[in-house]
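Hi there. Long-time user, first ticket. I'm pasting a complex I've been working with (about 450 residues overall). I'd like to know whether the download I got is complete or cut off, because the file seemed smaller than I expected. Thanks.
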Amino acid sequence: MARELSFIPKLAKKARLRFDRHSGSHMIVYPERGLALNGSAAEIARRCDGTRTLGAIVDELAREAGAGADERAIVETDVVAFVELLAQRGLLEP
Amino acid sequence: MSAPRPYTLIAELTYRCPLRCPYCSNPTDLAAHDGELGTDEWTCVLGEAEALGVVQVHFTGGEPLARKDLEALVTRARELELYSNLVTSGVPLTKQRLAGLVERGLDHVQVSVQSARPDRADAIAGYAAHPQKIQVMRWVTELGLPLTMNVVLHRANLDEIDELVALAEDVGASRLELANTQYVAWALSNRDALLPTRAQLEAAGERAAKHKARLQGRMDVLFVKPDYFGTTPKACMDGWARRFIHMVPDGRVLPCHAATSITPLRFDSVKDRALADIWTSSEALLAYRGEAWMPEPCKSCERRTIDFGGCRCQAFALTGDASATDPACQLAPQHALVEAARSREPGERRYLYRGR
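Hi, the file is complete. Here it is re-exported in full:
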């Protein structure tokens, strides 16, 4: 089931988003595991701070990318999919 | 071959521990391991590990709380942005000391319980620690830290899955590790008293799967099967000296906690060489890194990049040859050793306890 755009994602307290100087990209570190992020995933993860709805995150990222209506749909798909992946790994507050 | 990037440092700060669990992963010849690294040496090691690529550090033991400098090491780990995990029995610990560790940047705590039932738990641990463990787990969540509750499973507690999950929920754990005993070190000495029956194991696995589904997104429930009842070996440490640096209290660098049991190997110590030098060129770490050491059937097996040939310590303990195919694998020439052990009639439950 897709998440509503009104959902407010927040990284779980066990998850720490950090820059990895060895790979030059961000990663989420959590007990016994790590998740390497590409640039756009890091931009989404950074905004999962409990203050923004999914819709607001999509708006911000689309605006920063100068996306038109078609491209905004792509951003929305990416954001929803990535946030779902975080949820499945238990990396979001319930 | 260039050395792979290690992501995790397992820092066994001491072998001292008030508990005496019969499946303890510490060496069985404890007395022969003397001389713990000092604070400065560990501080230096943390920096060297980070430089190699490490992002997580587990402070463990023995009981890491026995070290008075744990606070200094947690502080250093935070300065280096390492994700720090305290693996503890919770004995002895006050809420005040725990709060201090949290303040210094501790990220996560893992507490092991021996059973959901206090009398059983204390009989297994050989020490009356259960009430304290429950208390410590509550403190961890009260202080806002994520908690993993770990349970080593064996014949005497496999029937408790429901109770253990209820306990983990009650104390607010975000992760529950239900890990079946791996039969190396003390657990191998106690194998006949610990091995479950297949029926017991399957029933437990089903219970765990139900809870995992029910708690998805709220609590991670992991059920780790014992390799004795599988058909393929475990991917031990994700491969020898590949992702984990395991350091023992005296400063030697191992691929895993049990590797000193492979007596022909000589492990280098950070007292003599830099960690980076050891990681890239220590003979013992090179011995089974990668695939060059593999015999058949491993060498041509399509699973060799998945399970890395299994556990070298188990191969050595059971066959006397650390480069043998792990006998837990059904394709191993010596698989009969494992079959014989698991089909044995249950032995009397009388544990051989480690000394303190």
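A couple of notes from our side: The mean pLDDT of chain B is 91. The longest helix of chain B spans residues 198-214.
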